[in-house]
Each structure stands twice: as C-alpha cells, then as structure tokens.
C-alpha cells in the first residue's frame, strides 16, 4: 500500500509506557473525524496508540486465520464424501486468503508479514484461543463451521460495517463476502449428522458439547476485564463490546440448535422475555486465560506446525528469490 | 474475530524491538529484497468488461509474472475477475492527506465546468 | 483389457468385497466390463488421488500465496474427479454414485497411474510431479474435449482450461527450483530422478484405450507422447535439470496394481465413510 511510514517504530507491541504524547490539536481533529464516521487511511495522521492497537488487533486476527487452517486441515484428507471434501478444502483455503488480506492491512501500518510471522512461530504472538483445541471427530468440522465461523461472522460483519480503519474495513468486506458459505456449509453438515444415524447424532452432539464454551470465549474477555475495549470503541475500530457480540451470537445460535434437535451444554440457559436475550451460564475465564497464555491443549502443536511450514519453506522462498535475481541479471546483460 | 484477546502490556513481542529493517522508500522492482522477503505488489482487479480496475489488496512475489500468478490465485479464486494489474508497492506515489485541501478543493470551484452553468434558448432540445 | 467375472460390486451399504488373493495378472477385483466405465474411472481416479495428495499441503505450504495456489489446483482436480466418477457411476448403472466409487473401492480397484499416488514428499517432489502430470493433463484434456462422448467432452473442456493454468504454475516452479539455489536445484533434480520412471504409464495404451479411441471417445496417447516430451524437455532445459535415463517403466495402476503408498492413502481417505456404512453426510 502506498503510505507505509518507515518513520514508525516498527514494533507490534502495545505497551503502557512509551506512548508519545500526541499533539492535542491533531488528536482533537482525529477524534472529530472518527465522530463524523470518516475512514482513516494509511497516510492520515493517527495517534500512535491507535496504530498500535490496530496492529495488535489485526495481527491477532490474521494469525487466527492462518492457525485456524490447522484444526480443520486435520480432516480434509478424511472427509467422508467428495462434496464435503471440496467444501472443507475451499473453506480452509479461504482462511489462508483471509489471513493474507489482513496481513496486507498490517503492511499499510508499516509492519510487514515476515515480522509478524516471526512473532507467531516463536510463540510470542497471540491468536484466537479457539484454535488451540483439538478436532477429534468428523463432526467437529460441521460444528466449527456453525459455531466458530458463526462467531467470526458476527464479529467481522460489525467490522466490515463500522471499522474506522479503511484497509481493515475493506479487508473485512472482502472476507465477509467470501465467508458467506462457511457457516452455512457447517450448519448443513451438522443438520445432516443430527438427522442421520444414531452414531452420527451422538458424534455431532459430542462435538457441540466440546465446542460450545470455547466458542463463547472467542469474543474475548468480559467487558469488565477487557482493557483494550475502551480505546478500540472510542476510536471506532470496534463498534460493539465483547459481551454485546457474544450475546448476539448466543441469541442467533440457540434457535438453530433447537431446529436440529441438539442441546447446548449449559443447564442454566433461559430466555429472558424482558430483554429478548438468552441468558447463559458463567464462562470459565480461568480456562480462557490459561489457553491465551499458551497453555491450552494444542498451543504447542499449532505453533510448531506453523514454524515447520515456515522453516521447511525457507529454501523454496530463497530459490524463488535467487531465480528472479538471475533472470533480472540475464535481462540486464541482454539489454546491455 | 479475535479482536480483543489480550490486554495491553501482555502481548506480542513487546520485550524486544523486532529486527526487521524499515522498508526502503521506493521498493526495488526486481524482486530482490533486503530482508529475504519477496517483494510486495499491489493488485488491481477488473470484474466485468468495461469496468475500472480497482484495488483488491496485495501479494508477495519475486517478479511481475510471479506477482500476477499469485494475484490470480489469491484475488481471482472466486471467479469474478477478468483482468488484473500488479504494481510494485514502492512504485506508487500517493498524494498526502495534509495536501488534501489545497490539492483537491480548487477543482470544485469551477462552476463553468458543469452543464447547469449554461443556458440554452427555450425550446431547443438535445443540447 | 480382457474380462473376468465381475466380482460383486461394492454397494453403498459399504459391504466391500475382500480383495481377491492372487488375482490374474491382467485384471483384478472389481473390474468393470464396460470399457467406457473403465475409461471414465481411470481419468477420475487420476484426479481424485492427485487432488487428495495436493490437499495434504493445506496449512503447511512455504508461503500463504502457495497454500492458496495449491488449494486452487487441488479443488480443480477434485472437482473434475467428482464429475468423471459421477459419469462413470451413471454409465455403469449399478446404483453406485461418485462417493461409492471414491470411498468404497479397495486399492486394487483404483485405476489411477502410479505417478499421482506417490507421497507428496518435499515441495520439489510435489511441484515436479505436478508439472509432469500437468504437461500430460493439458494434452489429454484437450484431446478428450473433442470426445464423441458429449458428457466426457464437456468435463474435459472445462478441465483443459484449468490444466492450462496448472501447467503454467507448476512449470514456472520447476524452473524456479531448478534454476534457483544450489539446494533447490539438488532437490528438484532428485525429485525428477525419483519420478521419471513413473512418467511413461499415462501414455501406455491397452485394450480399453484402443477401444475408446476406435469409438471416437478416447485420446490417442501415442500421438500425445512426443508433444509431452517436447514440452517437458523445454522446461527442464530452462530449469537446468537433466532428464534421467533408466529403462525401468513403473506401470500397473490402470489395472489396479499400485505402489505400496496407495493403500495407506486410501485407509486415511476412506476411514470416516467406511466407519458409517449407509450414512449420508
């Protein structure tokens, strides 16, 4: 993107200290632009903290797409029908594309992909905790499409409509357009299993039981414990809080579960007439923080798999670069 | 998704400044990259005959042909593309936001470039 | 292809026939008697098996752009396989469908050439194999897009467009790897040395091929071979890779005689489908 600004400190860190004091006039004008609903573009003036928050959020998002290929990739070779094999492969391929689109967005903020990948494969980067859970049966593919992509769509649709940073917003528009089929293919698969043989029904109910709570955690910590939210909301990166999006997802999903005769593993679920919301039980935040901090069931395998892909691919990337250089040199010689 | 996983100060690599070098202004156009990365290219796609090429995103690749190939796979995989351009990111010169006023506003103040500035005699059609 | 008693077809109920021990040399279990069915299955299996092998890269490629590119090619091949096996099942008229053919046949009933079933190896093996296949594929799809069998011609016309892109992608990678670094050159040359003996099989014509050619349905593989050799030679020259000698020609896939690798691949590919006989997905 034009407008990468090498003058930026090239760190993806968002820290409490070392934030420059912003010029109050510029900051006021920036916030007025946000208030008017304008898009912030790469070359526009922005507070350093805005830039860092974006880099943090976008890089976590991009990493999540890329790591998210692994749990589902685990079942591409075992898909039980040709149709399912095609749709699963197409979906996982989309995740590679979506990761790439979002990395393109971070490139506009002066942070390049290589640097972010380094952080991912050294275990420093964060990504969505959901992908650190194992995919144990074929039914997990349907349930991930239904729950995880359903949750992603709730979040990404809000970003596509409202995000104040132009490149991120545009990436989300493209992502939402392509992702339309992800949730639907997941739910279709879930419905087929739920209405299938007793063994299939048991398989899909088990998958629902395992994925429900981790999916609710995907929206991030509760508003009371979400230190980044206020800033992200104030600057229009996000429009809704974690809890608002979580509630929206729960309200959407419960009727879908009922429609296919599956139960959700939360005995305290009840519909609240007054608010029109489904009230759900307490999320185990200890588990959430443990997984975020690297101690989930599959964190080590996921990072190791991405590291292996990157390191085993080093000679390939080097070969392509070397060949392009040789070709350019031969062209220069011929031209001389 | 995943926008708000971790609080400030608990996160990705703030202990160290990444070693990557700042991008060169005006990236090279021969695919040679200082830090071993493939070069960045901006991709513009045309969806229908006669439509403009619009910015779609970027890819990394070693040369123009390679960039087109990657652009086709990344941005053309949903079939709605009939033509593509790729341009080295460093080759794009962009206007600067602080110029926006002096740079663009004067253009809106030329009433004589709009048809309603002119009158035609009553009853004459198709002018 | 001479005929044997067809064994009990494997139905969608998933009750397979055990592979026949010591099958006669010219034919194996599950042989179908209709050469057109056989022909459609051969081309379908090539694409199913290679698409499956390519899909193993998803999430593990050297760079995201290539995850996406390999995914595209795998999707193309698996899509072609779905169409071709669907036509085969229809033509056969025994109540099987494309899924029954893909998930409820034994390795000895698969009809793909051995080249496509070999493990994916490193990126050089994958791309050199892909190029060797694509260079054949672009020719055979072109020939079959003129087939007298309209449904086959339709599938192959679309497949030909896809193959033209595939061969460009894999050909460029072969050149990049052969003419890249010392390491990539070494890996590409080793891949070519290992794979070369598998490259004759797609062009070997047997009774099925001859019957299909005579009926105006099939391709003249003898006529395609020199064109394949010329295009392969051209790319290998540009890549600085030596085409190996060696007289041994690996063959047998077209009659169900495979390498040791296919059985393992199918065990993985078919496990879910076979664990739930009669289920729909």
The helix fraction of chain A, in percent, is: 55-70%
Distance between the termini of chain A: 33 Å
| Largest sheet entry of chain A | 2 strands, antiparallel
Number of strands of chain A: 2
What is the overall shape of chain B? elongated
Uncertain spans of chain A: 1-17
% residues in beta strands of chain B:
15-25%
* Widest sheet: strand ordering of chain A: 1-2
State the helix count of chain B. Answer: 2
What does this structure look like?
- The complex is a heterotrimer of chains A (336), B (127) and C (281).
- Chain A is mostly helical and 336 residues long.
- Chain A has 13 helices and two strands.
- In chain A, a hairpin with a 4-residue loop joins strand 1 and strand 2 (277-279).
- The two termini of chain A are 33 Å apart.
- Chain B has helices at 64-75, 100-104, and strands at residues 39-46, 54-61, 83-88.
- In chain B, 33% of the residues are buried.
- Helices cover 13% and strands 17% of the residues of chain B.
- A three-stranded antiparallel β-sheet of chain B has the order 2-1-3, with helices on one face.
- Mean pLDDT of chain B is 74; it is low at 1-34.
- Chain C contains nine helices and no strands.
- In chain C, helix 4 (123-144) crosses helix 6.
- At the A-B interface, helix 2, helix 4, helix 5, helix 6 and helix 7 of A face strand 2 of B.
SSE blueprint and pairings:
The complex is a heterotrimer of chains A (336), B (127) and C (281).
Chain A: H1 24-35, H2 48-67, H3 69-76, H4 82-107, H5 113-121, H6 139-162, H7 166-194, H8 198-217, H9 229-234, H10 242-259, E1 270-272, E2 277-279, H11 285-295, H12 299-312, H13 314-335
Antiparallel strand pairs in A: 1-2
Helix pairs in contact in A: 2-4, 3-4, 4-7, 6-7, 6-8, 6-10
Chain B: E1 39-46, E2 54-61, H1 64-75, E3 83-88, H2 100-104
Chain C: H1 35-55, H2 64-92, H3 98-103, H4 123-144, H5 150-178, H6 182-195, H7 207-214, H8 221-239, H9 261-275
Helix pairs in contact in C: 1-2, 1-7, 2-5, 4-5, 4-6, 4-8, 5-6, 5-8
